[in-house]
Amino acid sequence: MDAAPRAIPGLASLARSYDGFLVDLWGVIHDGAAAFPEAVATLAQLAAAGKRVVILSNAPRLSGAARARLRALGVEDRLYATLITSGDAVRAALRHRDTPFYAALGRRYRFLGKPEDEAVLAGLGYSSVPTVADADFVLASGLAVGPHGPRSVADYEGVLEAAAAQREPRANDGSVPAAAARGLPMVCANPDLAVVHGGAREDCAGTLAARYAALGGRVAYEGKPWPRVYRMALAALGVADRRRVLAVGDGLATDIAGAAAAGLPSLLVTGGLLAARWATPRAAPPDPALLAAALAEAAVTPTFTAPTFAW
Fold first, then answer.
1. 113: left (phi over 0), alpha (psi -120 to 50) or beta
2. 216/184 Cα distance (integer angstroms)
3. pTM above 0.85, yes or no
4. Which of 37, 150, 191, 251 has the fewest CB within 10 Å, making it most exposed?
């Protein structure tokens, strides 16, 4: 593993070294229920310093919906240049069909997630169907909310098993295509395994995708740490020298691994997912032993760490 990251109290000591910032949303700017005051103040400081900020989120919805949610939480549009979501990346992938995986997909999908997230495919010529028997692929954006709260992955076991076992129709000669034995492909619109929502852990579409892969299903992921969303975000950021772009996030497997793959320095906010995992206060510096163990387990090393996204 690389050298230990440098612990910093906030961005004030780093801002001059970077022209652009890719900033995560959940766990860094808000927790789904409220914006963090220190994060909003930091965005204001960066804007005042003329820095380019692109918010890069694994939200499985289009950026317009994510922007509206930020406004509702008190985060004004003027505090950042633009916002790119994994939902935007899914829409781009299914519009352009620019890889063999996407080029081979049919047009009918079985949707798993919250109804409002289906807007990512609006106007692209795809049709939602009620059963996997009618579907060409599965689109997973997350776990829907049931009458007793958020559903669990176990609630989807039957659907996932049916999709993994689904066979394509036989060819005219009666043979079964070789790809059929692998079941329906899945597009995962949010690679996150979990977020911290109002202080509580909440599973994301990544958990559905992980279970589907364990059942033998094929999965294409869009969002961090996968490359398409970084290409989109860096194009929007407009900073040519990647050494002058700092990626900020609280997810080791998504934000930090994605930054490393994109050739970007990174700042790990330890007061998000890790603080929830360790059951420690959000703004408290991490225990060095716990942090070292988490970095070793994830096999990634950020450039910097800080408890929160503070100035």
1. left
2. 10
3. yes
4. 37
Long-range Cβ contact pairs of 287-293 (< 8 A, separation 24 or more): 292/4
Give the mean model confidence (pLDDT) for residues 234-255: 97
Does the pLDDT of residue 180 top 50, yes or no?
no
6-88+224-306 has CATH 3.40.50.300 classification: no
**CATH number for region 102-221:** 3.40.50.1000
pLDDT at 173 exceeding the cut of 60: no
> Which residue ranges make up each domain of the chain?
6-88+224-306, 102-221
Q: What is the pLDDT of residue 153?
A: 87
Supply the pLDDT for residue 146: 67
For the segment 74-112, what is each residue's pLDDT rounded down to a tens digit?
Answer: 999 999 999 999 999 999 999 999 999 999 999 999 999
The distance from CA 157 to its chain's CA centroid, rounded to whole angstroms, is 22
Q: Closest Cα to residue 228, out of 111, 116, 91, 29?
A: 91
Per-residue burial over 205-241, b if 16 or more Cβ lie within 10 Å, else e, is bbbbbebbeeeebbbbbbbbbbebbbebbbebbebee
Calpha distance 139→141 (Å, rounded): 7
Measured N-to-C along each axis, helices 86-96 and 227-237 cross at an angle, to the nearest 10 degrees, of 110
Rg (CA), the chain: 20
- Contacts of residue 36, defined as CB under 8 A and 6 or more positions apart, other chains included, come to 28, 29, 30, 308, 309
Q: How confident is the model at residue 271 (pLDDT cuts 50, 70, 90)?
A: very high
In sequence order, what are the residues at sequence separation of 6 or more whose Cβ sits closer than 8 angstroms to the Cβ of residue 65? 59, 87, 116, 119
